[in-house]
Amino acid sequence: MRTSSTIRTRRTVKRGSRTAAVLAAGALALSLTACSGDDDNGGGGDKGDQGGASKQPASSVTLPKLDGETLEVAAVWTGTEQENFKKVLAEFEKRTGAKVTFVPAQDPIINFLGSKIAGGAPPDVAMLPQPGAIKQAVDKGWAKPLGAEATKELGENYSQGWQDIGKVGGKQYGVYYKAANKSLIWYNAQVFENAGASEPKTWDELLDAAQMVYDSGVTPFSVGGADGWTLTDWFENVYLSQAGPEKYDQLAQHKIKWTDPSVKEALTTLAQVWGKKDFVAGGASGALQTEFPASVTQTFTGGDQPKAGMVYEGDFVQVNIGETEAKVGTDAKVFPFPAVGDTAPVVSGGDAAVVFKDSKAAQALATWLASPDAAAIQAKLGGFLSPNKSVDASAYPNDVQKKIAEALVAAGDDFRFDMSDQAPQAFGGTPGKGEWKTLQDFLKNPKDVAGAQAKLEADAAAAYGG
C-alpha cells in the first residue's frame, strides 16, 4: 500500500528556501512538544463515534443534484484507510443522490489505470499518490482538467504550493485531498522510559538513544522494508537535512546525478542504522519481509518488550497504532525526524483526486473532495491529514493529530514534497524496480554505497530519459 507522505518543499515552490525549512521544522518540533503525553485517544480516533458522515455540519460547497448518476473512484487504499474514505463518499451520495463505487487499485496505480483505460472502463476519478503519476496521466491524454467549480473550491481552501503540485503545464488537474507529514519517528514510550532515553533532536542523539534502547534489551528500529517506499522516505529525510533544499531540488529533477558525493554521504549516514548489527528488527532479511503495517504494530505490541522500540514513518502511522492496545500520546509518542545537517527535515507527500471522465458527476466529486466538509469527515476518524487550510483543527480526534495538522497548514508553501513521488513512476514508484528495489538491496548490503549509487543513477537516467 502506497500511503501518502512527509513535509518536503516541492521544487516549484520557493526553491532553495533554507529559512522556510527551518521555520517549518521549528513549528513542527514545537507543536509536537506542546502536545506530548496529554492525549487519551488512540490512533483511530474516538472509537465510540465512528459514524461520521451524517454528523457533519451543513456545507457551504455547492453540489449539483445527481440522482441516478453512478461513479467509480479508484485508489490503492486498503483496510481502515479505505473504509474511512468510503464514509466521505457516502456523504457525497447523500448530498447529491449519486451512487459511488470504490475500486481497489494496485500499485503502481498508473499501470492499473492503463489497463482499465485499454479495456474501455476508466474510473471517473482516481487518487494518484505522485505528481509524476499525474503528469504521466496528462501526457497520455487520460486526465481531464478540473472544472471551474472544483478550481474555485481549491483556490479558496489550499495554499498556492498545494495547488501548484496538482498542475501540469499551467492547468489544474489534481486536488490534494490527503497529505502526509513524513518527518516523524514514533516510539514506544515505556521502552524509552526503561532505557532512560529521551527524544533526540540530532542524528547523533538518535544513534545514542538507539544504543540505550539496545542496551536495555530491545531492538531499536522497526523497518518495513518489504515496502520500498518506506526506504525512499528514510533516504529523503536524511538527504534533505544533510545536503540541503537546493541539492534536494536538483536531485529530484535529476539535474545532479545519483553518483554525486551528496548521495554517497546520505547513504553512508543511513548505513549507521541499517548496517548496525541488531539495530533493525529481524535484521535485513526480516525487515525485507516486513510490510509497513506490521512494522508499526510490532513496535506497539508486547508492552515494554516489543520487537522494536521505534518506527519511522508519517502521521498515518496512527491508523496502524489504532490496531494495537497502545494509545497515541501516552503509550505511543512521536518526535520530528532529527537534524542530520544544519536543520531538521520537513517532507510531505499526498494523494490527489484526478478526473478521468469529464462529466458533471466526476467534476462534482472533485469539487467535494476540495471542500473542508469532505476532509473534516475523514479527519475526525483519525490517521488522516489534510492540506485543506479551511478544515478546523478541532476536527482531528487527538491532540497529536491536531498539532501535526496545524503545523502542516502553518507551513503554507514552505515544504519539500516527497522526492520519489516527483520522479517518473518507473524510477520512484514501482515495486521491485528503480529506487525502491535498489534501496531494498542497499538495506541488505549497506556497505555497497558505490554499487547502490551506480544502480540508482542507471535507473534514474533511463526513467528521466538520459
UniProtKB/TrEMBL annotation:
SUPFAM superfamilies: Periplasmic binding protein-like II (SSF53850). Belongs to the bacterial solute-binding protein 1 family. PROSITE patterns: PROKAR_LIPOPROTEIN. Keywords: Signal, Transport. The keyword Cytoplasm does not apply. PANTHER family: ARABINOSE-BINDING PROTEIN-RELATED (PTHR43649), OSMOPROTECTIVE COMPOUNDS-BINDING PROTEIN GGTB (PTHR43649:SF29). InterPro entries: Bact_solute-bd_prot1 (IPR050490), SBP (IPR006059). Residues 40-63 are annotated as: Disordered. Residues 1-36 form the signal peptide. Coiled coil: none annotated. It holds the Pfam family SBP_bac_1. This is ABC transporter substrate-binding protein.
